[in-house]
Each structure stands twice: as structure tokens, then as C-alpha cells.
Design goal:
By secondary structure, this protein is an alpha/beta fold. It has one domain (2-153, 207-257): Aldolase class I (TIM Barrel), CATH 3.20.20. The protein has twelve helices and eight strands. The protein has helices spanning 8-17, 27-34, 52-61, 74-83, 111-122, 135-144, 154-164, 167-170, 181-204, 220-224, 236-245, 247-258, and strands at residues 2-6, 38-42, 66-70, 87-90, 126-131, 148-152, 208-212, 231-234. An eight-stranded parallel β-barrel has the order 1-2-3-4-5-6-7-8, surrounded by eight helices. Helix 2 packs parallel to helix 12 (247-258) and helix 4 (74-83) packs parallel to helix 5 (111-122). The longest helix is centred in the last third of the chain and has 24 residues, at 181-204. The N and C termini lie close together (7 Å). Bound molecules: pyridoxine-5'-phosphate. Residues 6, 8, 42, 69, 89, 91, 99-100, 130, 150, 212-215, 233-237 line the site of pyridoxine-5'-phosphate. Pyridoxine-5'-phosphate is lined by residues 6, 8, 42, 69, 89, 91, 99-100, 130, 150, 212-215, 233-237.
Length: 260
């Protein structure tokens, strides 16, 4: 299974002090040496972590393919077309969110999204849509003519954390353990079944399937077992682990869990 390492969180640490280090550019050769398959970065409209100059340098210098996540706003698509990453993953963005909270709206009339996809493809950039695991979103993505979808695993990760992580008791971004454990377990199994069914549905339609959000070495095995998923994009948990193990070892640890 392919691993895209999302290096935004290196820039998050840099921005905490608005200084020059750690520099996400320094991660490129380590990711490659550790066996990562792709570098993923999110150039947010508010530039809260990755800056334009980071994106430019990373895309220019990376020996691995770069997957640039961005919103469908005209400004962002113009930047993507100019920088020419290997792939652009279109994501929804809300200014106040801590991280990307849900999938992109793809059903119904979506003139801005359609235009963004056309512009990117005209520049020979692969396009992926970050969507919730629903049949409607997958069929709409197929109709939009993209090559990839990335399934949002945030609900799965939250349910897992509520059930098995003490984060559920302490962290504001994770819903409290409001339901009985048996109900949460049933919901977790339902979510795994949904991700399996929808990933398979997308693959049968001819889409390539990635997944990501909130994945850790603990919650990964059920996702790795989904045959139709080819690639995972993982950020927070790899960079968090790297503080203690170093980035190269952290990537090795994740790669070991990805072996099928
Ligand atoms: N994939 C997409 C589309 C994302 O927006 C993010 C978060 O930036 C990730 C994957 C990685 O999520 P995490 O940092 O929780 O591993």
C-alpha cells in the first residue's frame, strides 16, 4: 500500500514561533530514504502552515511525486496550475477549522469544482477529490472525470479514538464518549463496512482510491485490510511520532503496518 507523508505539521511547528525552522524542505530526502511514496502538502487559503514559497520549493525539489491539497478557489487553482505538482487533491476549507472536517461537496451542480478540474487537467495534473465515503459522492466524482478520490477517514478515526483512546476524555476536537461502548463499537464496524463498500464501488467504476485523515499505527489495520484502497495520506501521527523516533524511523514504523 502506498504512503503519502503529509509534512504540513513540520510547518505548523515552525509557525508556532514564526521562525525559519524546522524547514519542511529538509524532510524531502528523509521521506524518500525511508520509503515514502509521495509527499503531501496542503496550501491553505489562510497560509497557516505551508507558505507559497514552501510549496514552490517542495514541488521543484522533491524526488517523490507531490500531492498538493488545496481549495477550489480560483487563486489556489491558479497557483496549482503554475506550480505543476504531480497531483492536486481538492479539499473543502473553512477558515475556523482545526483541520479538514468533512468531504468536498460534489453532488448537484458544481460549476466552480468542474472548472477547477478542467483547468488542472489541462495542465496535465492528476486530480483527486477528498470526499466522504458515500455512493453519491463517488458517482458524482466519477461523472466529474477525476482520476482519484480520497476517502475521508475522520469519522472512523474519531469513533476509534472515542472507544480506545483516552483522548476521548480530554481533547476538545474529539467528541466525548457520549454513547454506550456497544453502540460506538457497532458504529465503528458500520463505518469500516461503509469504507470497504464505497472503496470497492469506486474501484469498480475505474477510480483510483486513496484514504486519509486521523490515521495512526493503532487504527490503521482495518483500513489496510480494504483491498480497494491503494494509498494513504498520513500527517499528524507520523510527525508526532517523529519527535521521539526521528522522521525516518516514524515512516518505517508506518510502512511496516501498511504491508499487506
Ligand atoms: N488527506 C487529506 C485530504 C487531508 O486534508 C489531511 C489533513 O491535512 C490528511 C490526509 C492527513 O490527515 P492527518 O494529518 O490527520 O493524518
Amino acid at each position: 500500500m502506498l504512503l503519502g507523508v503529509n509534512i504540513d505539521h513540520i510547518a505548523v511547528l515552525r509557525e508556532a514561533r514564526r521562525v525559519a525552522d524546522p524547514d519542511p524542505l529538509d524532510a524531502l530526502s528523509i521521506c524518500k530514504r525511508a520509503g515514502a511514496d509521495q509527499i503531501t502538502i496542503h496550501l491553505r487559503e489562510d497560509r497557516r502552515h505551508i507558505h507559497d514559497s514552501d510549496a514552490r520549493d517542495i514541488i521543484r525539489l522533491s524526488a517523490l511525486p507531490v500531492n498538493l491539497e488545496c481549495a477550489t478557489a480560483e487563486e489556489m487553482i491558479a497557483i496549482a496550475c503554475e506550480l505543476q505538482p504531480h497531483r492536486v487533491t481538492l479539499v473543502p476549507e473553512k477558515r475556523q477549522e482545526v483541520t479538514t472536517e468533512g468531504g468536498l461537496a460534489v453532488t448537484g451542480s458544481q460549476p466552480r469544482l468542474t472548472h477547477a478540474i478542467q483547468q488542472l487537467q489541462a495542465h496535465e495534473i492528476e486530480v483527486s477529490l477528498f470526499i466522504d465515503p458515500t455512493a453519491e459522492a463517488i458517482e458524482a466524482s466519477k461523472a466529474l472525470g477525476v482520476e482519484w478520490i480520497e476517502l475521508h477517514t475522520g469519522r472512523y478515526a474519531n469513533l476509534y479514538a472515542m472507544l480506545y483512546g483516552n483522548l476521548a476524555k480530554t481533547h476538545h476536537s474529539i467528541p466525548k464518549l457520549a454513547l454506550p461502548r456497544a453502540t460506538l463499537k457497532a458504529q465503528l464496524h458500520e463505518e469500516i463496512a461503509t469504507l470497504t463498500t464505497q472503496a470497492t464501488h469506486a474501484k469498480v467504476l475505474g477510480l483510483r482510491v486513496a484514504a486519509g485523515h486521523g490515521l495512526t499505527t493503532h487504527n490503521l489495520p482495518a483500513i489496510v485490510a480494504i483491498e480497494a484502497i491503494e494509498e494513504l495520506n498520513i500527517g499528524q501521527s507520523i510527525i508526532a511520532r517523529s519527535i521521539y523516533t526521528g522522521l525516518e524511523q516514524a515512516i518505517h514504523d508506518f510502512k511496516a503496518v501498511l504491508i499487506r
